[in-house]
Amino acid sequence: MRRISGLLLLTTALAVLLAAGSALAEDAKPTVTPFGQIYANYTYNASGYEDYDTRFPTNDYNSFEVTRSYIGLKAQLNKQWSANVTFDSRRDYAYSKTTVSTGVADDPATADVDESETEVFGTTGARTGQYTVYMRFAYATFQPYDEFGVTFGQIKTPVYDHYTDVWYLAYITGEPWFKYAFTRNGLNDLGVSLGGNFPKGYGKWGVMFGNGEGGSTAEVNAGKAVQASVLVRPLASIDAAKGLSLWGGFNYDKIQPDHPEELRTTMRGNLAYRYDVKKDEMGFIVAGDFVQSTYTIDIEGTDDVVSQSMAGWVDFWFATHYGVALRYDSYDPNTQNEEDTGIGYQDETSYILAAFYVKPIKNVKIALDLQRTSYTAEIADDKGEMVTKGPDQILGLHTDIAF
After folding, report:
1. Is the Cβ–Cβ distance between 193 and 224 less than 8 Å?
2. Angstrom distance (rounded) from CA 328 to CA 313
3. Looking at the predicted structure, is the pLDDT value of residue 14 above 80?
4. What's the rounded Cα separation, in Å, for the pair 233 and 235?
5. How far is CA 62 from the centre of its chain?
6. For the chain, how are helix, strand and coil distributed in percent, rounded to 5?
7. Which of 43, 148, 200, 315 could potentially form a cystine with 396 if both were Cys, beta carbons 3.0 to 4.6 Å apart?
8. 206-218, pLDDT tens digit by residue?
9. Residue 352: its H or E element
10. pLDDT band for position 166 (cuts 50, 70, 90)
11. CA distance readout (Å), 214 to 185, 188, 218, 254
12. Where residue 336 falls among pLDDT bands split at 50, 70, 90?
């Protein structure tokens, strides 16, 4: 059924492109616009971990970092055709290998294998990696109508294309769908999408059929992903209520088609209200968000893994150049993994962001912020007793420069 849906989407996109032949004949002078955007920050770890905590060496760790450096070209070929090529950079992570105890005794009958230890592979983090340039977006769009168009290439996922309507502090952290990596494709994917705006400002819609791995990962000849996103402004005709929006998202990712079948389905709902007291000078947005992801693998005796996040935020800007924001998240990576169920241990986290920001000139934002992540998990202290894992507390100075 999912393959049929994907083929139907591809057929529709192809039909739209074939019908675009008449637009090719239009004599128009293309315009090409260069652009760029930089997210740069300074962070300081003010957590104060105890000496028995494995995070103890990172106390007072502080660093300057660039987390986003877009540079690209936007081309408007004629009224219907446009294109976008955007490059980005990120740390090239170095890999580490650590030997840890398995908690079982070594079997002397297997002299060539030490069952008491195992090797764990991971990344050393962003501290040692060099920046590498990679392609973020590379797509062409045919938009014959404002309500309907098709995009092909390394495209923006529909959810990413809509989330900037409700979350304005991406230069500090992502909103929950991306912060907690509910999907593999994230911001971009290789594929085709259909989408457009509803008439008279009543919202927008988008649907995508893509590889599923995301734009930075090659297809592994597995299943594909289907994603849909709809943002509705039901009271767009009423001035005081036009900022009310309902946003729904869905992602179906066939990670492995068979032997065994492996898939992840993700759903989200967002309710937000924005009100501009005076355009570009004073206003606010308040929003509530819920995301649930279900991971299923077709192995007998294996239960589904359900992850959930609930979040709420308020962002208030005033006097043209200033603003304050507050956000709270609750995230549970496995709703069944609870201490009192006998399945596992407490693994929930809660997150608080408090920020004060300044916009000294157009397209420049500077934020002073505190991010605190609290845990329900327990660790052993220096007396061998189990205590609640201490929180992460990160002070930051984040900037967003667009040009």
Report:
1. no
2. 6
3. no
4. 6
5. 24
6. 10, 55, 35
7. 43
8. 999 999 888 777 7
9. strand 349-358
10. very high
11. 4, 6, 8, 13
12. confident
